[in-house]
């Protein structure tokens, strides 16, 4: 087993960026001028599964959208930071409130605004279409692009490494 796969056994929490990670890195502008983002259903399914299994999840974004916030609140995400300029401060708040150490956090980002926060966590990851500087500091580069399943990819890998990805009890109880 690779070193990365071994590290996944120590993940206790997930943190994700929005634009370019949870959504594609393209924004549509609606008729009223509101920016429209995409959301991948499989990413959402994995997030809900991770939350129900007990993983704290945070979303830290420089953007602002009540629709996006509501989407992740409905999936069970309790820590949603938007309009953020200093992602490391939000990470520290999340770690304090969840009593989790940075070495046990998997963060996925895609652009330079994620650089400092990715350097502050134990497992920095990115989608395959991240910028070069982010790829350079990532311990794992998903084979999926932002908004197209990269979040599902890392959550499923962590949960499989920890034998938490859809146990027989979950399937029987339909707890997902």
Give a quick precis of the structure.
39% of the residues lie in helices and 14% in strands. It has a six-stranded parallel sheet, with helices on both faces.
Q: Can you characterise this structure?
A:
The protein contains 8 helices and 8 strands, in the order αβββαβαβαβαβαβαα. It is α/β, with parallel strands linked by helices and 176 residues long. The strands form 2 sheets. A 6-stranded parallel β-sheet has the order 5-4-1-6-7-8, with helices on both faces. α3 (66-74) links the parallel β4 and β5 (79-81). α2 packs parallel to α7. The longest helix has 13 residues, at 41-53. The radius of gyration is 15 Å and the shape is globular. The model has no long low-confidence stretch (mean pLDDT 88).
* Biggest sheet architecture: 6 strands, parallel
Strand order of the largest sheet: 5-4-1-6-7-8
Tell me, what's the shape? Answer: globular
Low-confidence stretches: none
What is the count of helical runs? 8
- The SSE order reads HEEEHEHEHEHEHEHH
> Ends: how far apart?
29 Å
Number of strands: 8
Question: What fraction of the residues are assigned to beta strands by DSSP?
Answer: 5-15%
- What is the averaged pLDDT score? 88
Helical content (DSSP H or I, runs of 4+):
25-40%
Structural class: alpha/beta
Radius of gyration: 15 Å
Write the layout of secondary structure elements.
Elements: H1 3-8, E1 13-16, E2 28-29, E3 35-36, H2 41-53, E4 57-60, H3 66-74, E5 79-81, H4 87-98, E6 105-108, H5 115-119, E7 123-126, H6 132-137, E8 140-141, H7 150-161, H8 168-173
Parallel strand pairs: 1-4, 1-6, 4-5, 6-7, 7-8
Antiparallel strand pairs: 2-3
């Amino acid at each position: 087993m690779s070193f990365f796969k071994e590290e996944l056994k120590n993940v206790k929490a997930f943190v994700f960026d929005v634009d370019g990670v949870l959504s594609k890195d393209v924004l549509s502008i609606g008729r009223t001028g509101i920016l429209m983002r995409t959301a991948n259903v499989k990413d959402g399914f994995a997030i809900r599964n991770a939350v129900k299994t007990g993983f704290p999840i945070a979303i830290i974004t420089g953007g602002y959208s009540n629709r996006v916030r509501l989407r992740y609140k409905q999936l069970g995400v309790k820590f949603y930071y938007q309009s953020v300029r200093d992602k490391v401060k939000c990470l520290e708040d999340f770690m304090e409130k969840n009593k989790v150490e940075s070495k046990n956090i998997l963060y996925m980002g895609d652009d330079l605004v994620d650089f400092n926060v990715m350097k502050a966590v134990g497992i920095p990851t990115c989608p395959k279409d991240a910028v070069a500087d982010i790829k350079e500091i990532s311990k794992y580069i998903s084979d999926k692009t932002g908004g197209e399943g990269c979040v599902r990819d890392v959550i499923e890998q962590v949960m499989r490494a920890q034998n938490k990805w859809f146990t027989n009890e979950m399937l029987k109880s339909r707890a997902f």
